[in-house]
Amino acid sequence: QQYENILVELRGRVGLVTLNRPKALNALNQATMNEIVAAVSDMDADPAVGAVVITGSEKAFAAGADIKEMASKGYMEMYAADWFRAWENLTRLRIPVIAAVSGFALGGGCELAMMCDFIISGDNAKFGQPEINLGVIPGMGGSQRLTRAVGKAKAMDMILTGRFMDAEEAERAGLVSRVVPPDSVVEEALKAAEVIASKSKPVAMVAKEAVNAAFETGLSQGVLFERRIFHSLFATEDQKEGMAAFTEKRQPEFKHL
Ligand code: HXC
């Protein structure tokens, strides 16, 4: 498939999606976001792909939703088109998705990164929800996901003042899982994705589902959900293989079954 705003490659069992609108600092217009969702959905459905990395450039992961595309819209246009609704499809995918962030991850860019399963950050990264400077608020889950990631104090601070958070603060606050030099962000994310893709894909998918359940359920329901999934995995060939490999002191060869 041909894309205009992103580059898509397959490295072994890892899919790499690179935002490619350098002149607009990878601002996310509808076309770009639709392409990202389409590309990652294809990978989700492809048994040959075990994990995905989404990245931008060293200067910008994405500087936000495309302000120029939105600026002149009216309420009914936004409402009738349910602007940004399609982006949610990204959060319904089952394949693990890593955001490899260098430079600016602002507004919709920060929200895109937070829709991924975890974020690996360059030490030059700047995260922010500066929508308040434009007379709006986050519109793709920023007020919810940032608050869950970093807590009320920092989320309020960032969303009300529009200030940026650097990579060090983002790691301290729990927004990102690792910080590395900007020129090795993609490599580090690809390595992590390769590790994930070497596991059983269906098991990685339910692991992701179980962690995500922590944000939607109470503790006892969440623990029960986990245990039911845990039990169900004993119906898989990959559980038999994983445990046999341990006993036989060899590497497992998962069949994704
Ligand atoms: C459209 C954008 C853009 C954006 C940058 N550009 N961000 N175009 N939408 N979000 C364009 C600029 O207009 C400019 O194009 C080119 O990219 C380079 O940007 P500069 O501003 O010249 O670069 P620099 O001086 O280095 O400043 C970088 C920056 C600044 C600090 C990131 O661009 C900036 O503040 N951008 C907007 C950040 C923001 O407010 N994001 C939130 C968007 S609202 P030209 O043609 O002039 O050279 C949002 C709503 C979320 O995301 C709702 C749900 C998604």
From TrEMBL:
Domain of life the protein comes from: Bacteria
Keyword Ribonucleoprotein: no
SUPFAM superfamilies registered for this protein in UniProt: ClpP/crotonase
Annotated Gene3D superfamilies: 2-enoyl-CoA Hydratase, Chain A, domain 1, Lyase 2-enoyl-coa Hydratase, Chain A, domain 2
Keywords: Lyase
Reactions mediated catalytically: a (3S)-3-hydroxyacyl-CoA = a (2E)-enoyl-CoA + H2O; a 4-saturated-(3S)-3-hydroxyacyl-CoA = a (3E)-enoyl-CoA + H2O
Family stated for the protein in its record: Belongs to the enoyl-CoA hydratase/isomerase family.
This protein's name: Enoyl-CoA hydratase
Organism of origin: Arthrobacter gyeryongensis
